[in-house]
Design goal:
13 helices; 1% strand; globular
Amino acid sequence: MPVCYALLAAVFYALNMPCSKLLLDRASPTFMAAFLYLGAGIGVGTIALFPHAKESPSERLQKKDLPYTIAMVVLDIIAPVFLMTGLELGKAANATLLGNFEIVATAIIARICFKEKVNKSLWLAIFLITLSSIMLSFEGDDAFSFSLGSVFVICATICWGLENNCTRAISNKSTYQIVTVKGIGSGTGSLIIAILLGESFPALKTISLILLLGFIAYGLSIFTYIRAQKTLGAARTGAFYAIAPFIGSFLSFILLNEKLSAAYPIALMIMIAGTVIVLKNSLCKQDSYSARSSL
């Protein structure tokens, strides 16, 4: 059952890119980002009302957690706007795989800002994922031209890499509360920005579809991820969850009929190699920690 939860988390999130791409012709990137996060926050907040989701008062967010919480919300306002803009300008398949650059951004920020150790194998993975990201940032149909859409997606992953490190600082707090605050706070912030920019309000039917997608691709993904973590642990759950970009890429070809560039298969193989190294590195660290704990 835990493995099923982990795989479901990956499948749920994999729906994000291709389905968002389909809806972007009905809503602006900022409104899209707003309702995706609102769907997640409202959905997870509703799940938190059930008895099995109750957590102790000591796990509640406190005043000392406010700086990291604010940073988390602000970054989650900026990142999805970048992502939706990138999707609007580029291919969903490229954007899906470029999402793995978040691994690179998270590791580099953790090393520079939070002084975490990064070993040689992880630096190799960072190099491979960066190389594939550069390859995916160029369009190869007729000419070697730079893709602006890919740049926006990479900016989104950098924001999420910083947000991951901010969230880590409060990760011992209530997961449900963190996700609810993140969803509703970031969604409301993006909604205000969209209104101030004078963007056209989507139709009610479109809003409903985006909220539903946000609940499934963000909310349910997080929910099933947490369920899997309780038994499998973070590293092993992450190993299963890392298949999400590749499922999403496949769905982009099926749902959107996107054509592959000549560089795409090569970038895909390099991206897979880098991701496998990251996962093996995480699993080795988890096993080493478990061994020390048992002594």
